[in-house]
């Protein structure tokens, strides 16, 4: 299985119009996994991917109101 990236997870969670794609997921990962080498590429393990899915909220849909 190929590793996933924060951008892929952000899109899956509904964050499609971000100025910085994957930002919400990377912020969560940085806070949760502070030992990750700063400025290096995130390639999520299965455990990290499951953690993101369980803890990063889905994007709120914009209402028509």
Short structural summary:
42% of the residues lie in helices and 0% in strands.
Give a verbal description of the structure.
The chain is an all-alpha fold. It is built from three helices and no strands. It has helices spanning 6-12, 23-32, 46-55. It is globular and about 35 Å long. It starts with 5 loop residues before the first helix and ends in a 10-residue tail after the last helix.
Provide the domain count. 1
What is the 3D form?
globular
Low-confidence stretches: none
Helix residue percentage: 40-55%
Mean pLDDT: 87
- Strand share of the residues? under 5%
Count the beta strands: 0
Radius of gyration: 12 Å
Q: Give the biggest sheet.
A: none
Order of helices and strands: HHH
- Helix tally equals 3
Terminal-residue CA separation: 42 Å
Structural class: mainly alpha
Question: What labels would you give this structure?
Answer:
65 residues, mainly alpha
Topology overview:
Elements: H1 6-12, H2 23-32, H3 46-55
Helix pairs in contact: 1-2
């Amino acid at each position: 299985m190929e590793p996933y990236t924060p951008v892929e997870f952000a899109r899956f969670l509904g964050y499609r119009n971000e100025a910085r794609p994957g930002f919400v997921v990377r912020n969560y990962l940085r806070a949760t996994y502070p030992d990750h080498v700063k400025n290096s590429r995130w390639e999520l393990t299965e455990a990290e991917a499951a953690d993101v899915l369980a803890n990063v909220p889905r994007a709120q849909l914009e209402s028509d109101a």
